[in-house]
Amino acid sequence: MKLRSSSWFDTPEYYGFSRKAWLRSEGLGRHIFDGKPFIGICNSWSELTNCNINLKQLAEAVKRGIWAAGGVPFEFPTMSLGEMFMKPTTMLYRNLMAMDVEESIRANPIDGVVLLCGCDKTVPAQLMGAISADLPAIVVTAGPMLSGLWRDQKIGAGSDGRKLFDQYRAGRITTEEWVEIEGCIARSAGTCTVMGTASTMAAITEAIGLALPGNAAIPAPDSRRLELAERSGFRIVEMAREDLRPSKIVTREAIENAVTLDMAIGGSTNAVVHLLAIAGRARVPFHLDEFETISEKTPCLVNVKPSGEYLMEDFFAAGGVPAVMRRLLPLLNRDCLTVTGRTIGANFADAECWNDAVIRPVENPLSRQGGTVILRGNLAPKGAVFKQTAASPHLMRHTGKAYVFETYKQMLAEIDRPDLPVDETTILVMKNSGPKGAPGFPEWGFIPLPRVLVERGIKDAVRISDARMSGTSFGTVVLHVAPESAVGGPLALVRTGDEITLDVPARSLNVHLPADEMERRQAEFQPPPPHYTRGFGKLFLDHVTQADQGCDFDFLAG
Ligand code: FES
Question: Model-level pTM greater than 0.85?
């Protein structure tokens, strides 16, 4: 097979010569031009993305594998998205990074690519870009951090941090203890130690068939991750020779498998929006309601925080994604092709589970249905997303009066007010936090519990917004309400004192207002002024789609 890269070098005109000469300036011998596949290593390493800090070391292991298989590695950087630091939110830049990845792959003389990612948005951004570029591609993620360890207590980065913060706010943890926790909750390189968005997207990548089995859960500092990176390097060279591209792997059936796995692991709600975007890139028509259909028939098996009790290190020891996939095989499309060159059925048929408490058997699930469900009603005509496995059972059917924050800023200013007129029945509503309204669709949906409730020992309340929330968060939190309030969705019409009913078993979310009152308020609606009038921000506002369509840019799908 003629390699794609040869069209850069095997040309009679001057540039064939100069490209070879300039490449040899890196100290490479002429043997690299004797039919060896050129493999890109697309590295999202950055010192501003702490979760991805081990990707440099993984890149070296990938290179070993590429050389060993007879390929030639070329590492290149792309934009990186550090969840902890980027303002207003990494989600504003997911599509920009995806464009960087796509064009960097397409423009260069490479025959295949290894994608190195980890922190939340770096995984979908690389997947979206690589699917659009459609050269052979394999993913190696950073892996989860070691479990946090405070004194003799295991703590999960993200989920436990938020619970401990409420204790600190209520004065039950001292400032000295809080500083001590800061030093031991995130103990190593790697992604958050719970089933947050990074772990969810890594698991989904394995289920969709774009990473070697076992990739998602090996802890970042574990030597077995380096070995997996080396094997991935070896395998991508074979994939380049086999011309095994994402378009042969990311089919409708593969996306269904990814959603099934997402439901069984109690995955992050963010997976919904990323999978819709990934499906769009792969030209697979996939509808929000299909998450609901799959959720209804898929048990949640993985007992990892925030849905369960354990951490990612425990999940790895129990067998990781392969063990879950084996238990799910009757529900999966087993003939889907993967990066191994074999099918999902063949990859996972013999996977073992070593701990039934962490990865529950199908007969004894964490819940009979999947972690995420889709709600609809007059408050969310285009859907809203809800993580039922991380919610409070007593609030799953709840009617209460709304207390409305018009903006995130207002919420922050008021949430600790000692006279905030709320109680445990109040439904907290926050507007202008969606893709265009915030802007960038930030993780503001986990509205903190008002101090007046925390001090009374109340641990949860119904919260509704058009924002996302971190995959490490938990509680009775309705997210991704679509259409968002900033474009005139019904959420924009809700006022403090309106009565709202959340009915998760019925999958509904409704505000109790007569139709003519809704119409009257709709007529009065004024959209907020745009946040950007130039630059990337304007491109984002002009082209981002709503949450139910994956928030990709309208011109990037397909
Ligand atoms: Fe990077 Fe959690 S902050 S994975």
Answer: yes
